[in-house]
Amino acid sequence: MKMKKDKLIELKRAVDSVEIVDAHSHNIVALDSNYPFLKCFSDATGDALYNAPYTLNFKRGLRELTELYGPSLSLSLGLHTVLETRRSLGLEQSAITCFRAARVSTILIDDGIELDKMVDIEWHKKVVPMVGRILRVEHLAETILQKAADGTTWTLDSFMEIFTKELKSVADNVVAFKSMVACCSGLAINTEVTQKEAEEGLSGVLCAGNPIRISNKSFIDYIFMHALEVAQSYDLPMQIHMGFGDKDFDMMLANPLYLHNLLEDKRFTNSRLVLLHASYPFSKEASHLASAYPQVYLDFGFAIPKLSFHGMISSVNELLKLAPMNKVMFSTDAIAFAEAFYLGAKRAREVVFSVLHDAMVEGDLSITKAVAAVKDIFAENAKKFYKLHKLDVSSKDSDIEPHIPSPFIKEELHGSLKDSSTDSDVEPCISSYFQNEELYGSSKDVTLVRIIWIDASGQHRCRGVPRQRFYSFVKKHGIGLPRACMGISSISDYPVEDTTLTCSGLFTIVPDLSTKCRIPWAKQLVLANMCTKSGEPWEYCPREALRRISKILKDEFGLVMTAGFEVEFYLLESVIKNDKEEFESSDQCRKCHTAAFDAASPMLEEMLGYLQSLNITVDYLHKEAGKGQFEIGLPYTDCFRAADTLIYTREVIRKVGRKYGFHPTFLPKYSLDEWGCGSNVHISLSKNGINVFKASEGSSQYGISKIGQAFMSGVLDHLPAILAFTAPHPTSYERLYSKDWNGRVVSWQKENNYAKISTCRLPGADVVGHFVCPAFDACANPYLGLASILTAGIDGLRKDLSLAAPVDRESRVNQEDYRRLPDCLTDSLSALEEDTLFKDMMGENLMACIKAIRKAEINHYSEDEEPYKDLIYKF
């Protein structure tokens, strides 16, 4: 099968332009280190290293580095010209040059190898936007033993006490643990190793003398098992070095199939293991494990190509034969030199392009899936696996500019390096959920950066900042705004008096660079946090409220609330009647009708394309029940990202709809004669990436775990007050109640869209995967809405509440047996006044602000017969 040229170009551009997450590497060394530069090209040691210049890999690498550092350099001068250029640029500038050209946005560093004059983790943040640390557990153990090699008498208990303490002390500051167990003693790990065996092993290690080198299998297995337990408890993955090891090591013992006992051990079913270096020469076996076990992931790296180019292609092909593409990640395994990172990234792009190209030719992948695989393999899989959005990096204040032209996309790298390093408006490449800038070329065409926040009334607000000012000042220090901005209602742009937020005094909106993205019409968008002038989180910040309460759930229960939104919207046409603007439906069809979908297909496909460019996955898209109404389903993710994703999704829908001549609106009820619009939210709980809302088969009469029942019971218990956050506008209640009588009482039902809380079974199973809260609409600030649900759920967990029986959707309940849900926003506010939980958890001043805004809106819209005429422009 031949592949069309345009698809070939599209794949090549995707491979060449993706910003890479390098998920496993090592420290860089100073220019005057005695670590040999020839190690960029060979893994040889001792005298064998002097043969490296005679290898094809050296000749190719030298040519590529000469091209990197400038077309004026002479290849005939050999390695000397590259070394001189490095010295003249200096370590920092030469490293920046390499990482920019390689388009590496993130490096994760195993600093457990001691190198001559190596620089520390912090230094790397000067040259790469995001840096994370990987802790090598055997190195930690050897360091502990070595420090006390002055005659201290060790017992296994005394060692393990210190070892455990050290592991836990760094757990919050690393992205992963790493073990060398495969090349130290083999992967046939004894999961039942006894304390006595480990004690004897420790004694053997100590008797071997200094320097301490852990080599006893029983002791290695013991500390590996313990480190894995700690990693699992802190939701950290464990990297396992695979493949090549010491010369005297029996490589057959590194066959990953030996991990069978460990993978079958129920103590570690929630662990996450990543097998490094393509598990060569056991790539096929590793691929099998990744397909068979949910906790196994794979990583490949080519910084020091131990294989031929075709050998590397063969190895990656073996990985992808069975392993899901969302479980395969990239790393360079680069060490000592930034040039090694560059060569590794360049070689990997060539290999992945070749493998995916062949898969497309064979008909195994479409161009869309191949491009998605590129992003997943080089970045997205690692971002999710290592939870890089939690990485606290100084790179948010960095002046590193990632998007200088890259040799991977056949553009000139060089101009003046000096000029680029002193540019005051350079752009940092923070790893972003929504990173997509490579699709639209250089950031130099950006005029304004649009900073977005959501106010207490649920409206999207923004301020545009010129690019130069954004990157020279605002990205770090933010913009001051009057405190009154959070006291504004949907009525006018004057602050509501009872909020006590006036035009006197400022707060600061600080860009969250992890949300920065590009859309052609807006060029650059970024969501903002709200801070005080001193830089502390402001008590009125909705994002901070959700972040803080999410942390409580994690700290107290080890849980994460996941969420996925249904985004309903109308596409209306503006018409002039009697000199007045009115809105009419864009079609007359009802739910899932193909005619309406066909008519809107070009616009819907454009929406989908823009969302995909933002790394926003869409589960489905269909025509809804209202005339001109559609719905987009967004997938589960952690609740914080779910709110961010919802905001960007609405921005895309608005812009694309207007481009096609429609007026999109998300208003809960734009017309009393039409169906309402909601942002129904699906809620679940996860622990270590595993759904813990669902019960084991047959272990619960409702199919919900004990944790899930307590959480959902808390939501039900506080549901009347929650509606003040999730259905926060008078018009919300025009939509809220259907003909389902039971929907007006505090209760839950099984799989009923009209119920205010409804559970959903997992496909093909008799267990519940999540529950749905349909009483959530576009007038709600999504961060505050989710924070209120989370607050109530935490209360249910703390009190270990029991879940009441569900209501039968086919029969009416006795109203006197149940609490009645609020009929209007006034009733919801009364419930919120009586429910002190939210004031205690979310903050008294924030609650006072929300209540004041809602009361003002109640007073205003009770006198307005057609409120949608104004609101249709705001929501």
Automatic annotation (TrEMBL):
A biological process from GO: glutamine biosynthetic process
A Pfam family the protein falls into: Gln-synt_C
A GO term for molecular function: glutamine synthetase activity
InterPro entries: Amidohydro-rel, Gln_synt_N_sf, Gln_synth/guanido_kin_cat_dom, Gln_synth_cat_dom, Metal_Hydrolase
PROSITE patterns: GS_CATALYTIC (PS51987)
Protein family: Belongs to the glutamine synthetase family.
This protein's name: Protein fluG-like
Organism: Nicotiana tabacum (Common tobacco)
